[in-house]
Amino acid sequence: xxxxxxxxxxxxxxxxxxxxxxxxxxxxxxxxxxxxxxxxxxxxxxxxxxxxxxxxxxxxxxxxxxxxxxxxxxxxxxxxxxxxxxxxxxxxxxxxxxxxxxxxxxxxxxxxxxxxxxxxxxxxxxxxxxxxxxxxxxxxxxxxxxxxxxxxxxxxxxxxxxxxxxxxxxxxxxxxxxxxxxxxxxxxxxxxxxxxxxxxxxxxxxxxxxxxxxxxxxxxxxxxxxxxxxxxxxxxxxxxxxxxxxxxxxxxxxxxxxxxxxxxxxxxxxxxxxxxxxxxxxxxxxxxxxxxxxxxxxxxxxxxxxxxxxxxxxxxxxxxxxxxxxxxxxxxxxxxxxxxxxxxxxxxxxxxxxxxxxxxxxxxxxxxxxxxxxxxxxxxxxxxxxxxxxxxxxxxxxxxxxxxxxxxxxxxxxxxxxxxxxxxxxxxxxxxxxxxxxxxxxxxxxxxxxxxxxxxxxxxxxxxxxxxxxxxxxxxxxxxxxxxxxxxxxxxxxxxxxxxxxxxxxxxxxx
Length: 511
Fold this sequence. Notes:
The protein is of the alpha/beta class. It has helices at residues 18-21, 124-133, 146-149, 172-179, 181-195, 209-225, 247-255, 275-287, 317-323, 380-384, 391-399, 419-423, 430-484, 488-501, 504-510, and strands at 25-27, 33-37, 47-48, 55-56, 61-64, 73-74, 79-88, 96-104, 158-163, 199-205, 232-238, 270-274, 293-299, 307-312, 332-336, 343-345, 358-363.
C-alpha cells in the first residue's frame, strides 16, 4: 500500500468499549421462542416454506429467498412452528412484518448443515449459491444480501474486509477478530476467489491492537501451512475516527478512490464486506452451516454484566438482557446499534435480527434534554459531515417540507452518522429531520409508482373497452349488410338451376 487517505469531516469520540470488550464470546442458551422476520434484509421478503405445526430442526430452511436481492431464513432453534404472523420489528417503530414463530424444545443440538465445500475445488457459482442458500447478509448493520454483492458487474481489484468498529460501545467485531481470526481469514480467501480480486485489505482501527495482531498471526499461520503461495492479504490499521467504518469512508481511506454519489464501491473496483459477514461465509462454505446466530454486544451503564454473546436469531431482546444480568435501573432506554447511528427500541419484546450488532442500555435520564434553539448558520455541521453535504440546507428544506429541493443537496447520500447533530450548538436533531424527509420522499415515490400502475391499468381497460366497442360495431355492420342483401335473386337463380338440372328420369317416373 502507498498510504492512507483521510476522509473529510468526522469526529473523535470516546470509545467506551472497555466494559464489554475484554471477555470471551459467550454462547446464549436458546430462548423458549424465537421470532424470525421474513424481511431481515434489504430487498424482497423471504417466502415461507413451512406450515404452522411443523417440527423444524436448528438450521432448517423456513423461508426461501424471494428474489435476487433477498435472503433465506433458517430456524435458529429446534422446535415447532406455532405461528406465521405479523410482529413489530426493531425498526422503524410501529412497522410490523410477517414472522415465523418457533417454540423451542429445550435442546441445544447442532445446526443442520450442508456438505462442506472445498473452495479450491468448487466452482465460483457453487460457492456463490452456498452463500445465498445460507441466508448471509451484511452483519455490520446494512443487511444487504451478500450473494448479490458477490456478483459485481465490473472487474474488482481490491477486497476490503471491514473490521473498523467505529461506533462507541460496540465490540462484537473486535471480539470476533480476537477470538476467531482464522474464520475471518478463511472467509476472506473464499471471497477473494468469488470476486477475483488481486488483493485483500483487512481494515482494523488502530485502537484494536489485539485484533490486528490476531489477524496477522492467522495470516502467517495460513502461509506456513499452505504448500502454495497464499493470496495477498494485508491487515491495515486505520486511524480511529468516526465514521471510519462507513463503506465509502473506508474505501477512500484505503484506496484514495471516491465512490460516486449514489454509487457503490464496485464502481471503483472494490468490494467491501464486514468481518462478521466474512466469518459467516467461512462457516457456510467450510462447515456447511447457515446463518442462524450472530455475535451481539450487550453494553452500556444500564446493564449489570456487559459482554458479547452468540445469540440465536429471533431471540427476544428481553431474554438477552436477562442473560446479561438484567438492568441496573427500572427505567432504561434501549438502543439497537450504537449511540450515533442506532435506533431506540420501544420495547424489550422485540427480537434480534441479522443486522443487530449491539443492544445499548442506558438509565433513563432524570433531566430534560437540552432545549432546541434556532439554527445560527455556524457551519459546524457542514465541517463535520463526512459526505461533504450541507446539513443546514437539508434541515431548512426538510423542516419547510420543500422536499423537491432536497435531492440536489444530496439527501440520499446522507449516511445518518449523526456527526452534524453532535456538533450542533443549537441541539437541533438534524438526523431526525433527515430520516423524516427520506420517509416522506419514499412515500411520495411509492404513491407515484402506485399512480403510474393505476394509470396503466386504466389505459389498458380503456383500450380493451375500445376494442370491444369496435368489434361490436363490426358485427353490427356485418349483420346490417347481411340484412340489406337481396334475398330473392340468389334463391331464384338456384331454383332455376335446380329445375334445369333435374334429370329426365324424374319426369318419366311421374307419368
